[in-house]
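Comment thread on ticket #2218

A.B. wrote:
> Attaching the input chain for the structure job we discussed in standup.
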Amino acid sequence: MPFIGVQPATVPLTSSDITDGIVTTAKIADTAISTAKIADDAVTGAKIENSPTIANGLTLADGNLVMASGHGIDFSATSDGTTMGNELFDDYEEGTFTPLPNANSATFNFTTQAGFYTRIGRNVNFQIYVVIGSSGNTLTGNQLYINNLPFNSANTTNNVRNFLMSGRNLNVDSSYNYVIASLDLNNNYLVPLMIGDNVAQENFRADDLANLSQIIISGSYIAS
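C.D. wrote:
> Ran it. Output below, let me know if you need it in another format.
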């Protein structure tokens, strides 16, 4: 039937013209609305409620997908291992930290203190590179520690990790072959220890370093 009278001008429908809850997925035919028909900013986060289902994937042409704290990507639809404890991917982070070698009564003059990390879920990958200065150091015979890992290790039984510690001017006693850096549960510091064949481990002390010593450690651990 033709329009009777004066036909009103065409006016685009805006978000303010639609009452909350009036349009449902059941009332929109497939392909009826294309991106070309939606004005910029017409649909905001406040207009999308509950848990919408998106078929055939989601492509972001620009911007980021932002998760609320404590939420992430849920992989519960996938098959599981027999001892699966969690399927929520809820953390990713990368950055730097300042590793700090320390020992009782010792003082250090550092020329380099570099630490890098990437956290994926609870797994933390890290790298440490430290250079002791050429002077101004007081190196005592007390146990060396390397503090300031970016996260505490998980407080879980048997969650103990050992990392190879290499570098330059590391004075390893004659009965030992190499140095490890041990990370105990619920800690954010490393304990360097000398390791050898058929001998008990021995503390790696501040005076096992020297002027211009280098400390290089890398590895991964499970964070709390």
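A.B. wrote:
> Thanks. Noting for the ticket: The mean pLDDT is 86.
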